[in-house]
């Protein structure tokens, strides 16, 4: 059960949630799905590109998964089930992955899904000119992508790399024709996939519409049903304002919305005309990563002071009205494989400690605004937040952090919301004090590698820019073993080092997805294991 | 809106009292602007709290005795923020209008006096600038300079230059050809004296009125651009930015967005009432 309805506690809330649970369960028992019709879904985030290889926005997956599929699907307990591949084997020495492809799968542009097409996807992803920083990720370990026969793909790695299966199984496979298309970077109808829906219309800033793929017949066994999708048409409307989404659903302009603010959640939870579900994401929490190579945060004492100066629990409770979970570690608790919960409660708000650390670090003077300074320089940390990932009231959260840091320790957190181009530049040049972000799509600890490897060795989102040799050694050690316990212990060490000893970042809250739907919409659910809202394949509308 | 010559000629206090009696709306506008002026110059006088001091435990409290306008999503006192916000909103509006009035008047005067090619060049330039809606032009300028208080003032100021330049240019034309200037010329006055003593004061006569009316537009423009995040950055309590912050809470905490909205509305209405009254009395005097 992915819902967290009992969160607030209290008998009345439990009673209400029980009622909702019973009601929806009964509805699913007595009603059989009907095909046809259309659905409008208000979403918060517009995809920056429609090419699934190049899109790093977790929130875009919900849309793109209608068109693009991958080799294996995940089960709720973290297992793998067939999808575009019916089977896979890993060689004894752990470096060769062989996938057997399903027969009779076609891309919506008419191309056949065969081994050559899949191998081409892997080869292209390795090209830095095509996929940029992604090429340094797990695909960088692929030395050969072979297609010995039309149904068999063989991927040979340069080394044992334990997170590879999750990464490779999740890569969206696009049509070989797409690589010659003008739309390759932006995405579009020429970038064909094998999914249950086909892109029909995309109006930038407004909506994206998909129509049913009538030939679709290769859903994974845990998708809810087989054959084509129920809906004839699904439209996602881009409604970046949470209040607008809430209003659009309550007024019936859309049938489903995602991204519900803590303030509005009760509106849907307590109303039988709607269903409300939420699920915490896997990956990394929304974390304020502190740059160890630029500005005052070069000093570990300043970094530790930032961690101690902010009362995260109180801020999260206040901003999200009890609807989000405070985070502690380098992974979210949903990452059941590798989350070490011993970190919880092992550090926290301590204004005295923060002030003592800053005094020791020499930031003893105070300017007219009550902010600390040293040699006439204000203790100012520039937070660079990408507008593309500014969602879920994060602007309010950042302002709350800003107020806490100022009031509790005299630290100036300067907020700078930047566009995608500026964000990429700053990330590349390292000219920032802190970057807050979360990732929600890479599991099996792959995301740890992206966050903590040196940038030139695959740490594409190493926001803290650490190049500590012990971290690199740990990550290499963990990657080269397939022993789960050993990996768990290594990541656990890394977590303590990164947060308690080095204060590379301050974990803030666990990102989650919320979906509210009109009561006559059925089949809305979260993707097993990954916990992102699932595509529209299994959704049907009761009429 | 015309005011009888009797009233406009009446003197001092009697004039004011009569006006207050006959035009309560005007009195209210003046009183409100006075309060805004105090808020701008001396916000501590009106508010008890630090406008940027957040308290997570006091978030989203409805209006009450301790917090007259309630508290916002971070537990900051909304009344204090509205009072302190006057400084930013008014400062931006006034500065933008001053830039526009000064630069616009100089351009207009220059065009009106020089005529010929220079006039053509200036007029065409003004045509190009005014081809873009004010706000759009300001947005374009800010996209080059980046958000911030100074950049916002500059962008809004530049966008409203043509309004002033056009009026001053037209007035300069009329006055330069009027009888008394012709007369002055025959007295053999130098060009500088002619311009400074006889043309400039009359050509500029309408500028303060235009500026007052334009101030309302500038305040709305500033609030609008701040709403979009182009103005002062958090945690500065600017009205437009506060409105933007409050928009997602309208359903649960209306007071976060409504009070700054009320402040913007009342200020702009008051400024407009004052400007229109001034304009009417100016026109009335000219007719009378």
**What does the radius of gyration of chain B come to?**
22 Å
In the CATH hierarchy, the architecture of chain B is Orthogonal Bundle
**Strands in their spatial order, largest beta sheet of chain A:** 8-9-10-1-11-22-12
**CATH H level of chain B: which superfamily?**
MetI-like
Structural class call of chain A reads alpha+beta
The helix count of chain A comes to 15
Overall number of domains of chain B: 1
Mean pLDDT of chain A: 89
Q: Which range does the strand content of chain A fall in?
A: 15-25%
Q: Summary?
A:
The complex is a heterodimer of chains A (about 550) and B (about 290). Chain A has 15 helices and 24 strands.
For this entry, give a set of tags.
heterodimer; A: 543 residues; alpha+beta; 7-stranded mixed β-sheet; 4-stranded antiparallel β-sheet; 15 helices; 28% helix; 22% strand; globular; disordered N terminus; B: 288 residues; mainly alpha; MetI-like fold; 14 helices
């Amino acid at each position: 059960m992915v819902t967290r309805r009992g969160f607030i506690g209290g008998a009345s809330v439990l009673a209400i949630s029980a009622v909702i649970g019973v009601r929806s369960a009964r509805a699913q028992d007595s009603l059989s799905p009907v095909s046809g019709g259309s659905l409008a879904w208000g979403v918060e985030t517009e995809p920056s590109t429609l090419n699934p290889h190049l899109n790093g926005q977790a929130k875009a997956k919900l849309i793109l998964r209608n068109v693009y599929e991958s080799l294996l699907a995940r089960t709720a307990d973290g297992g793998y089930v067939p999808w575009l591949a019916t089977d896979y084997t890993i060689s004894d020495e752990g470096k060769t992955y062989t996938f057997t492809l399903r027969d009779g799968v076609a891309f919506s542009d008419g191309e056949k899904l065969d081994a050559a097409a899949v191998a081409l996807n892997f080869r292209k992803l390795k090209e830095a000119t095509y996929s940029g920083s992604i090429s340094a990720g797990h695909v960088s370990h692929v030395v050969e992508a072979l297609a010995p026969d039309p149904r068999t793909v063989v991927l040979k790695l340069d080394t044992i790399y334990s997170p590879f299966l999750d990464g490779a199984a999740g890569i969206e496979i696009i049509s070989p024709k797409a690589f010659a298309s003008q739309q390759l970077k932006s995405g579009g109808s020429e970038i064909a996939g094998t999914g249950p829906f086909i892109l029909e219309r995309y109006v930038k800033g407004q909506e994206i519409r998909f129509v049913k793929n009538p030939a679709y017949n290769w859903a994974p066994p845990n998708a809810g049903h087989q054959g084509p999708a129920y809906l004839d048409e699904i439209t996602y409307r881009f409604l970046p304002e949470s209040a607008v989404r809430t209003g659009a659903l309550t007024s019936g302009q859309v049938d489903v919305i995602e991204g519900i603010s803590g303030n509005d959640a009760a509106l849907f939870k307590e109303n039988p005309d709607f269903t409300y579900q939420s699920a915490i994401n896997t990956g990394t929490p929304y974390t304020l990563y502190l740059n160890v190579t630029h500005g005052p945060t070069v000093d570990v004492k300043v970094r530790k002071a930032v961690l101690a100066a902010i009362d995260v629990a109180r801020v999260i409770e206040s901003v999200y009205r009890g609807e989000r979970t405070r985070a502690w570690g380098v992974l979210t608790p949903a990452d059941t494989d590798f989350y070490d919960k011993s970190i919880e409660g092992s550090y926290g708000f301590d204004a005295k400690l923060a002030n003592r650390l800053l005094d020791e670090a020499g930031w003893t003077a105070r300017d007219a605004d009550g902010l600390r300074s040293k040699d006439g320089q204000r203790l100012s940390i520039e937070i660079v937040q990408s507008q593309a990932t500014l969602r879920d009231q994060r602007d309010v959260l950042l302002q709350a952090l800003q107020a806490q840091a100022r009031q509790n320790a005299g630290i100036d957190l300067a907020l700078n919301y930047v566009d995608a181009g500026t964000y990429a530049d700053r990330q590349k040049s390292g000219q920032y004090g802190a970057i807050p972000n979360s990732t929600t799509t890479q599991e099996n600890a792959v995301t740890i590698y992206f966050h903590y490897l040196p940038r030139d060795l695959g740490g594409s989102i190493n926001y803290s820019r650490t190049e500590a040799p012990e971290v690199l050694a740990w990550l290499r050690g963990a990657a080269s073993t397939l022993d789960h316990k050993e990996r768990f212990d290594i990541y656990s060490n890394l977590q303590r080092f990164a947060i308690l000893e080095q204060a590379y970042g301050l974990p803030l809250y666990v990102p989650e997805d919320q979906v509210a739907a009109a009561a006559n919409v059925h089949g809305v659910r979260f993707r097993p294991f990954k916990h992102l809202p699932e595509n529209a394949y299994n959704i049907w509308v009761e009429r | 809106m015309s005011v009888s010559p009797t009233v406009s000629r009446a003197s001092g206090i009697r004039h004011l009292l009569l006006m207050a009696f006959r035009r309560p709306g005007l009195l209210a506008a003046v009183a409100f602007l006075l309060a805004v002026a105090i808020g701008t110059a001396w916000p501590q006088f009106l508010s008890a709290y630090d406008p940027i001091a957040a308290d997570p435990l006091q978030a989203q409290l409805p209006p009450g005795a301790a917090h007259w306008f309630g508290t916002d999503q971070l537990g900051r006192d909304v009344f204090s923020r509205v009072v302190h916000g006057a400084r930013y909103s008014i400062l931006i509006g006034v500065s933008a209008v001053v830039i526009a009035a000064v630069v616009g008047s100089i351009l207009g005067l220059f065009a009106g006096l020089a005529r010929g090619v220079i006039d053509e060049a200036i007029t065409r330039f003004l045509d190009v600038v005014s081809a873009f809606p004010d706000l759009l032009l300001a947005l374009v300028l800010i996209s080059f300079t980046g958000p911030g208080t100074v950049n916002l003032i500059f962008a809004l100021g530049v966008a409203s230059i043509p309004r002033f330049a056009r009026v001053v240019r037209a007035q300069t034309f009329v006055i330069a050809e009027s009888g008394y200037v012709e007369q002055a010329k025959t007295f053999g006055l130098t060009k500088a004296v002619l311009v400074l003593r006889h043309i400039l004061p009359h050509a500029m006569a309408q500028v303060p009125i235009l500026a007052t009316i334009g101030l309302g537009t500038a305040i709305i423009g500033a609030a609008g651009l701040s709403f979009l995040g182009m103005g002062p950055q958090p945690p500065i309590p600017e009205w437009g930015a506060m409105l933007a912050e409050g928009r997602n809470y309208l359903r649960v905490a209306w007071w976060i967005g409504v009070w700054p909205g009320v402040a913007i509305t009342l200020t702009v209405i008051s400024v407009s009432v004052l400007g229109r009254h001034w304009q009417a009395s100016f026109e009335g005097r000219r007719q009378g």
